[in-house]
Specification:
single chain, about 60 residues, alpha+beta, 1 helix, about 10% helix, globular, binds zinc ion
């Protein structure tokens, strides 16, 4: 699965839970950026093998 962001071909390794729209599957880099927004939670997928974004590290 590819990152949902335009012009990004990285593997999607996080699911973004976004209060104001549908969930998106994105790469670690985009998850890091998106999770800085109020209310957005980046959930690592089983395939995630990179560092978790700040605030999403529960393991
Ligand atoms: Zn991306």
């Amino acid at each position: 699965m590819e990152c949902a962001k335009d012009d990004c071909n990285d593997d999607a390794t996080f699911e973004l839970h976004i209060p104001w729209k549908a969930n998106e599957f994105v790469c670690a880099g985009h998850a890091r950026v998106a999770s800085r927004q109020e209310g957005v939670v980046a959930d690592p997928l089983d395939t995630a093998d990179e560092d978790l974004p700040d605030g999403a590290a529960n393991q």
